[in-house]
Amino acid sequence: MDTNIMLWQAVIFGPDDTPWEGGTFKLVLEFTEDYPNKAPQVRFLTKMFHPNIYNDGQICLDILQNQWSPIYDISAILTSIQSLLCDPNPASPANSEASRLYNENRREYNRRVREIVEQSWLDES
């Protein structure tokens, strides 16, 4: 059993009434001694297809970078990430293919997201 208190695992669920609905998405949060003055490193362990999520799971989200404030707690971080799923920021693409499909072919984008959701069910072991 890992006893590193600076390394947390979390789960967020796909928001209802979105293509992400029903998905279970695992993340890892890595804190430093500087927390809460410095944001934790957060990345998805679950494979994702999203304009603001890199292929390695890193998340392009302002509150995890230049807009960080010590007032943000873990709940605020996870809620912001969950909100980002259904409300991407096209000005800050991390996955060019997902960004292109989101902007140009929403139907195909949603189909790819549904594939990720279905894969998340298989990854629950």
Automatic annotation (TrEMBL):
<comment type="similarity">
    <text>Belongs to the ubiquitin-conjugating enzyme family.</text>
</comment>
<feature type="domain" description="UBC core">
    <location>
        <begin position="1"/>
        <end position="122"/>
    </location>
</feature>
<dbReference type="InterPro" id="IPR016135">
    <property type="entry name" value="UBQ-conjugating_enzyme/RWD"/>
</dbReference>
<dbReference type="Pfam" id="PF00179">
    <property type="entry name" value="UQ_con"/>
</dbReference>
<keyword id="KW-0833">Ubl conjugation pathway</keyword>
<dbReference type="InterPro" id="IPR050113">
    <property type="entry name" value="Ub_conjugating_enzyme"/>
</dbReference>
<feature type="active site" description="Glycyl thioester intermediate">
    <location>
        <position position="60"/>
    </location>
</feature>
<dbReference type="InterPro" id="IPR000608">
    <property type="entry name" value="UBC"/>
</dbReference>
<keyword id="KW-0012">Acyltransferase</keyword>
<keyword id="KW-0547">Nucleotide-binding</keyword>
<dbReference type="GO" id="GO:0005524">
    <property type="term" value="F:ATP binding"/>
</dbReference>
<keyword id="KW-0808">Transferase</keyword>
<dbReference type="GO" id="GO:0061631">
    <property type="term" value="F:ubiquitin conjugating enzyme activity"/>
</dbReference>
<dbReference type="InterPro" id="IPR023313">
    <property type="entry name" value="UBQ-conjugating_AS"/>
</dbReference>
<protein>
    <submittedName>
        <fullName>Ubiquitin-conjugating enzyme E2 A</fullName>
        <ecNumber>2.3.2.23</ecNumber>
    </submittedName>
</protein>
<keyword id="KW-0067">ATP-binding</keyword>
